[in-house]
Write a structure and sequence with these properties.
By secondary structure, the chain is α/β, with parallel strands linked by helices. The protein has two domains: about 1-280, Carbon-nitrogen hydrolase (Nitrilase/N-carbamoyl-D-aminoacid amidohydrolase, 4-Layer Sandwich), CATH 3.60.110; about 325-555, Rossmann fold (3-Layer(aba) Sandwich). About 35% of the residues lie in helices and about 20% in strands. It is built from 17 helices and 19 strands. β7 (about 155-160), α4 (about 170-175) and β8 (about 180-185) form a beta-alpha-beta unit. α4 runs parallel beside α5. The chain is elongated and about 85 Å long. It starts with a strand and ends in a 32-residue tail after the last helix. Residues about 265-275 have low confidence and may be disordered.
Amino acid sequence: MAQLRVALAQINPVVGDLDGNAEQVLRWARDAADRGAHLVAFPEMALTGYPVEDLALRRSFVDASRQTLDALAARLATEGLGELVVVVGYLDGAPDAVPVLGTPKGAPQNAAAVVHRGRVAARYAKHHLPNYGVFDEYRYFVPGRSLTVARVHGADVAIAICEDIWQEGGPVAGARDAGAGLLLVINGSPYERNKDDVRLDLAVRRAAGAGCTLAYVNMVGGQDELVFDGDSLVVAADGTLLARAAQFETELLVVDLDLPDARSEAGRLSDVERDEQVERVVLSADPLPAWEPEAAPIAGRLEDEAEVYGALVLALRDYVRKNGFRSVLLGLSGGIDSSLVAAIACDAMSAENVYGVSNPSDYSSVGSRTDAEDLARRTGLNFQTVPIAPMVAAYEDALHLDGLAEENLQARVRAVIWMGLSNQHGHLVLACGNKSELAVGYSTIYGDAVGGFAPIKDLPKTWVWRLARWRNADAEARGEKAPIPEASISKAPSAELRPGQLDTDSLPPYDVLDDILDDYVEQDRGSGELLAAGFDQELVEKVLRMTDHAEYKRRQYPPGPKISFKAFGRDRRLPITNRWQEHAPRP
């Protein structure tokens, strides 16, 4: 058996910051070497950040990625890290390739480089390009065709990238036929609820399929609407979990592996892709002297609420940090949505950088005003009150609005105040709408929908309450004051734009609404299927009609982190101008 100490660097790159990302690779490679690693792997497109979207089609960006990789290879050697095998994701391409209709310009590739002794010793390009959900990789990349196997201290290490193991056959089958002792997979796998369980099951199946140990390294951090949760892991061929990193944290996961000795023959890929060759490179042929392996960590799993809350905190923190903001501002109504967003913001960037503004109107209840003040005291965020009644009156005197137009005017006056303070002080305004409201259009465009980021955009209303209760309970378990007033959690939700208004005046109870929306939005079920599931026909028709008619509002809503299987935006894309409506025959 050949022994190998492998390090998985779960880092947080920034899209487009090639120099900064290269510095991260260098820093973490040095840490891996200090801990005795022989090979360190970095996530998918770690040098460029991920996803790069249309940057992949710019020749200047592809050239810069390749140049940064070459410079990094030389620097690793210069700084005494040349013997360490570094596997790092980057953007490759052939900018001078002859253009082919239907192929991305410049033939860009989502690639991995094997760096050793100051040079790029081997390259691998991703075979399977996902083109579903949030992914558009056929738009940006051309697929690779060969399997790369690097021999490191007498063990053969096959390389794959993310989607390559989500599909049957291909590089997984190739690794088995090539006699690899380790299948190393670098990933940019976005978070969604319970995906950690899916990943582990997948890794177990693919390790068995490849007939070898599988090491899976994933990036961590927020990137626009995506958040990456890390969750790097190592699984033996028999399915045993050997090591696992934490979620939502940068980490270097180091594990000692006993791997089969490399075989001498070149090998071929499986009959599934028998035209593809195995490209081998020998970096160090002889096994190392044996040593006593160290126990590797296996991080515990987060409970569902802690996992979702951690994703939202990380997404907001990175959106603020990576886009150069220092502070955020939000309207505090005393309601559950803004209260939860305020708690997330304080956890993401500390309370002194969070600014809450209460904008009471003639219809705001005393309880709502005091609840907003109570939340500010509990969290320590900056708080001010700007009453809107005089401003609303001035608009009404000039415009003579009534009904819904008058109600929405209040929300838009509040938005003007928030954006004015944002422009004056440089705050990023947070929109506080949840997924249930966005689905049915229960938000005022250019009013409460205004902002630069929407932390709970993909969180159903029932989950808003769930996270609020969890966050309070978590604080109390740690001996801290609960951040969210109990009154904000327990009171009936209301926009408070007219006397005695409640959300249930125009919406079904949120548990029923979320059940319907889960079927319609997440599962793409039609009205007939909803009726068959037992939902009331008139209610189904109303909710589906509201959801369809609100598409134009959602297109203008700020970005927010994806935490569900199907989020509005990158996941669910429907035409705004659309006369198709779901209809089911009445019984």
